[in-house]
Protein: Major facilitator superfamily (MFS) profile domain-containing protein
Amino acid sequence: MMTTGLLFSVVSLGALLTLSMLFLNRLSPYYRTLWGTLLLAVCYYTIAADFPVPLMAVLFIIGMGKGVIFPALSSLLIELSGGKRYGRTFSALSIAFSVGAFIGPMLAGHLREQISSYFIAFAVLMLVAAILPLCVGRSISARTHFS
Structure:
């Protein structure tokens, strides 16, 4: 029988795997954020559509997506701010995370009878993946500050 702790550990192992892939640092944070977002969206759609994929495999890939997105998002915001407005940029990110952590479970609980919360996550991630190229534009270099 699978316990909650084991399932969370699988997500963490997926994140650990991608964080140990040091070559990812050489890729553009924009592309890492975009591809990680698409990977998470596909995983959440897999759960929402109830595809016959083992839950452990999907959770491992979700961990991999999060392991790609979170470091890349910080690097992307550093590049977009131009190195000038770190405090303001990361406070906006913190506010967005806090609002999402508050509204997300509440919205998923209210809409659970009508629509899957995983489908809501899929829709939001696909919306972000569609808007990201429009907001960032071509001003992002292919090299990060750390390479």
